[in-house]
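Fig. S4 source data, part A: sequence.
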Amino acid sequence: MKFLEEYKRRLERQRKSNKLKKEKDRIRKLHKSSFLEKHMQKAGMYISKYKLFNRLFNASLIINLIISVFLIYFFSTNYGYPVIYVIIITFFLWLIIFFGLLLIVYLMFYLFLDFKIFQRRLDIEEVLPDFLQLTSANIRAGMPIDKALWFAVRPRFGVLAKEIETVAKETISGSELNESLQRFADKYNSDLVKRSINLMIEGIEAGGEIGCLLDKISSDIQEARIMRKEMTADVMAYVIFISFASIVAAPLLMALSLNLLQIITTIIGKVSITGAASSVNMPIQISKVSVDPTDFKIFALTTLTMTAFFSSIIVAIIQKGSIKEGLKYIPAFMGVTIILFLIMAKVFGVLLSGFF
């Protein structure tokens, strides 16, 4: 029995040692990662860059194949070109289109990573004050700083909980707590996180009362958040004015202009026919309208789309202070503007048709 117990203890120690060794290897690889891998780790994606390149390449290949099949079918069916001729042209286009499409896919992936990192940064900043308060309470209860950080982790903290778990694992595997915290602060481009972690590190090195320091940092973050909300409320009048001008006024005026142009075109057409039939010399010559209503409608849709896009960016900067944080406004502004323009064009068409 003693032999079996000793053997179990020895296996348990060996298992822990192997687990610790794997964790050290993972941390060492993490520090030696390439720029793309570090960028992916910031976004919470732990995948080999070779697998990533393979998947993006396959996605670009599939998209290009679909486009090529569509072009072959479209031109050979509608325009009567021989299939062989279309295939040869498509083959030569592959040399340009495929690599251009591949570049666009990689660019979109980098933009996705950048937005994902930004969202994770916002999630960390949102729960950081609550985490610091829990850590302060654990320190006041007599825990050392590393255990206080570990036991303050809650599932609702999301990204921050995973990052603190990584800090705790690095500390257990032999890294200094200050170095692990500094790596965590440098991982995200957040002034709030960097200032908070730097103050914490300075407090640890100075040997001061960390609990009071963390409470003070938490209260300062919450006060800054309240001041930001008050500033947003002060400029709400500008947001309302820009939103109204972009979403309501611009589609209304464009729809009215489109219908007036259609009415003027119809009236001039009737006058021209009547004048030609009577063959009477009129003192005023009425020429044909040079602007086509269809072209004006395309112009209106393009102008309204651009206006809504830039208006949503301005509103995002005023309200949130960042374009990335207000990206959700862009599709909302553009969709409402275009839909309202089409509805108003139909409404004005019905109302004005009774007068002319």
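Fig. S4 source data, part B ends here. The first helix runs from residue 2 to 31.
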